[in-house]
Amino acid sequence: MPQIQHINHHIWFKACKPLRGKYKLSTNCVMVLNGAYLYNKVIKKDFTRRQLLKFVTYYDNVRLGKYITVLMKLGFIIESSKRKTLQLYSISSKGIDVIKELNNSYQIELVKFCSMYEIELD
Question: 77 — phi, psi (to 5°)?
Fold first, then answer.
């Protein structure tokens, strides 16, 4: 049996596929948007690029900045306020809609995968 993180990655990419086409987002953009959503839910406040970078940890500052720029241009992340020289961002309602679709898509792909390989979900 493959390790659980391998299964998770497999399901993640399958779950992202319909979103990539519908919203014209790369899998990496979806991952950053998901990280922004999780940051907001866990930390319960808006974020700077640096805070999101520390939270997501997978990307370097340049790449994360590019993904945030794309997400902002498409309206999934918005500039919420400015404190001194720091720009704060938040996930928009449009971005939250994408995350809801991602969660639904992930659940569907998880059930398909487990059913295909006769894995029982607890």
Answer: -125, 140
